[in-house]
Design goal:
six-stranded antiparallel beta sheet; mainly beta
């Protein structure tokens, strides 16, 4: 779980504060390959567009994602990962539509 409080930039813009939470199940498929299924929750407050706190009506809201992920050990301390985050519940403010997110990367184990 994570909370992120945001600051205001020099032009008065402030992104809405965010709460993220995740729960996942991971299982080994083969010796170097793991699979995970994750559910992610994100709540974002509305963005403020000026110093006086005026809010952008088309920002913020709640999204729940399902996120299948594959992890492949390419060495004893390096894991290649690929995931897709699919929105399954959306309660967004104003005119918004959450899209599928694709994520890939390397994880280095210490």
């Amino acid at each position: 779980m994570q909370y992120r409080g945001t600051g205001r930039n020099d032009f008065g813009y402030k992104y809405g504060n965010i709460v993220n939470a995740s729960i996942a199940y991971e299982r080994k498929l083969l010796d170097p390959l793991d699979a995970a299924l994750e559910f992610d929750y994100r709540y974002a407050g509305r963005d403020q567009v000026r110093f006086d706190g005026e809010e952008d009506p088309n920002t913020g809201g709640t999204v729940v994602y399902i996120a299948p992920r594959l992890l492949f050990a390419i060495g004893p301390h390096v894991v290649l990962r690929a995931a897709v985050q699919i929105p399954i519940v959306e309660h967004l403010y104003g005119v918004q539509d959450e899209k599928v997110n694709v994520n890939g990367g390397l994880t280095f184990l210490f």
